[in-house]
Amino acid sequence: QILPRFYHEKVIDHFNNPRNVGSFDKNDPAVGTGLVGAPACGDVMKLQIKVDDTTGEIIDARFKTFGCGSAIASSSVATEWVKGKQMEEVMTIKNTEIAKHLSLPPVKLHCSMLAEDAIKAAVKDYKTKRAKSNVDSEAEP
Ligand code: FES
Ligand code: FES
């Protein structure tokens, strides 16, 4: 049991029952991987999205976080929020919204920042991979 006195119950819920924990194959062309770290504390978050190529919709998400309870809760919320959304839409998710949702105290803001950064990195990775595979396939005879 983590310190309930310092954490809002939503944090504890996401910490004890994190949603969408796990990994996708990062070489899958439909998968975008965001791997980010917080220099301040050394915590690391990996967030992956699975994208429907034709619609651009994020159909699934996974995370693995080596970090504090707030970082785990933030990544869990982030995976919940990105599912079913367009990539453009999730680029506008702000860490402050995640922090507010979880009632994170100011000292834990950087934990939610990891989640915002990880979402952006995952979308960027997906787009980079896709652009590359388009170039590759155009290069084929
Ligand atoms: Fe989990 Fe809102 S409490 S997404
Ligand atoms: Fe660094 Fe939470 S204390 S991510």
Structural write-up:
With 141 residues, this protein is α+β, with helices and mostly antiparallel strands. It has one domain (9-129): Alpha-Beta Complex (Sufe protein. Chain: A), CATH 3.90.1010.10. The protein is built from five helices and three strands, in the order H-E-E-E-H-H-H-H. It has helices at residues 9-16, 69-82, 87-90, 95-102, 109-139; strands at 31-37, 44-51, 58-66. Strands 1-2-3 form a three-stranded antiparallel β-sheet. Strand 1 and strand 2 (44-51) form a beta hairpin. Helix 1 (9-16) packs across helix 2. The longest helix is centred in the last third of the chain and has 31 residues, at 109-139. The chain is elongated, with a radius of gyration of 16 Å. It starts with 8 loop residues before the first helix and ends with a helix. 35% of the residues are buried. The model has no long low-confidence stretch (mean pLDDT 91). Residues 10, 14, 77, 80, 101 line the site of one FE2/S2 (inorganic) cluster.
Strand content: 15-25%
> What is the CATH first-level class name?
Alpha Beta
Distance between the termini: 60 Å
Could you name the ranges where pLDDT drops below 50 across 5 or more consecutive residues?
Answer: none
Content-based structural category: alpha+beta
The profile of the biggest β sheet is: 3 strands, antiparallel
How do the SSEs run, as a string of H and E? HEEEHHHH
The average pLDDT is 91
GO molecular function: 2 iron, 2 sulfur cluster binding; iron ion binding
Protein name: Iron-sulfur cluster assembly protein
Keywords: 2Fe-2S, Iron, Iron-sulfur, Metal-binding, Mitochondrion, Transit peptide
Pathway: Cofactor biosynthesis; iron-sulfur cluster biosynthesis
